[in-house]
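Work Package 3 (structural annotation) set out to generate three-dimensional models for the target panel prioritized at the project kickoff. During this period the team completed the workflow that converts sequence records into discrete structure tokens, so that structures can be stored uniformly alongside our sequence database. As a representative example, we reproduce one entry of 417 residues exactly as it appears in the project archive.
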Amino acid sequence: MPARRIPALFALCLLAVACRTGDVNPDLLGNVPDTGLPVIVIDTEGGRAVESKAINYPAVVTVRGAGGYDGLEAVGCTVRGRGNTTWAWPKKPYRLDLQESLPVLGMPAGRHWILLANYPDRTLMRNLVAMKVSSLTSLAWTPRCVPVELVMNGRHDGCYLLVEKVEAGGARVDVSREGGYLLESDFRYDNKVQWIDRHGISRLVTGIPFAVKYPSPDDLTKDQEEYIKKFVSDTAEAIYSEDFADPAKGYAAWIDVDSFIDYWLVFEIMGNPELANPCSVFYHKDAGGKLVAGPIWDFDIALRSFGTSVQEWTGFVNRYAVWYSRLFQDPAFADRVRERFLELLPQLLEVADYIDECHRMLKASADLNFTMWNPATDRWLNFGLLFNGDESLSFDDAADRLREIYLRRLEMLKTNL
């Protein structure tokens, strides 16, 4: 979808100031310039500001499709804050729950949607590129997403990414209602049903956190909880056993190896370290089935610039992540990883062209977004350090650098796997 250029940066600046100070008529849908992106308009009841992750604010959402998509007219919904670190940042991410399951911007019908702010990402495309890479693999489901302009209570808040929520059911994570599970590993350890698996603590001092996301805590029975905890423990036991490489007795009897390989490749290609310090790392399991890796989520600090992460350009980021430290000790597993990478490489190289397409698509929106938000001025949110190393660059330079780092990652893997 080509970006439609808007007149002049000076005009963008004036409009941005007006939007941020609330001088735009909240009854108008067209209070942002035509950047070529769809527009999401959310009006909360009474214009109440969304200030909490715990409160569902009643609202109405309208979607303008920017020509390439069907829109939505005044759909009832609730909106609330979301995220952990990201909720503390100036540009807030949100969760949007529609009153009914509906298709949005060409994506399959769903009730629950996420608006990612991508605040520290000067390219605004790290998540887009990660989802593209994931879609080339055999992973069962990759969240679909569309860049949008967000208008909240008449105030233009810049460029966001509308994404399908990671959840079981519908057109998303396909697990059965009876006996299916969706699990998450997250070091924040802030879920209702969670535990630490301590196998392999020679590498991970505190073990690996696991949480049940589906069934929901209200629906999960004690028997189901005990079953999935034992299954994870038995899986880890097989991975760290003396017979771990045996196809019948070892890890291959418990995990879907192809999914674990493709999942690792997406994280490693994108240089996302959050597989090693697990954060938003997902697995799922169907009734009677093996543990399957995926889907991917949260790549806004991927493909970081040299100086922020030396390994981002020159070496492995997740070679010793969670169970992979042990899996790579099996030569057959390592061989399969390399073979799979080389099989995917022709398509992966084409992602560089996709980065160029995203660059063109997002250009007008980025120019406007960064008159409102400047991630370089808020480095104190990361203890005085920059996340990605490109926060002070222009959008054009950051996008070019992202492309360069991506291709360097592919070359590194081709050489070192």
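The radius of gyration is 22 Å.
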